[in-house]
Amino acid sequence: MSLIITDDCINCDVCEPECPNQAISMGPEIYVINPDLCTECVGHHDEPQCQIVCPVDCIPLDKNHTETREQLHAKYEHLKMALSS
After folding, report:
1. Which residues form the 4Fe-4S ferredoxin-type domain (predicted)?
2. pTM of the entire structure?
3. In the structure, what pLDDT confidence band is assigned to residue 1 with cuts at 50, 70 and 90?
């Protein structure tokens, strides 16, 4: 699954720089996560870094974008290839 930022977000700015895939950006009111770029840090870290640094625990799994660990790793590989070309 990719992750999602809930309305509990306080716009503290700590999650965005932690995302290795640049999946987090400022939305109209709070930060948002692009599910096409989110790999839950698979390929980079053992745990999602945004969840670790979030002071209000507002970054759960996005049940609307379910993916297995294998699918997340394939997405990571695809993103890595796209960035290198």
Report:
1. 1-29, 31-64
2. 0.92
3. confident
CA separation (Å) from 6 to 11, 33, 37, 59, 75? 11, 10, 18, 6, 23
Element (H, E) at 24: strand 24-26
Q: Taking residues 65-75, what's their average pLDDT? A: 95
Whether the per-residue pLDDT at 72 is higher than 80: the answer is yes
- How many Å apart are CA 22 and CA 5, to the nearest integer? 14
CATH classification of the domain holding 27? 3.30.70.20
41, β-bridge pairs: none
Number of domains in the chain: 1
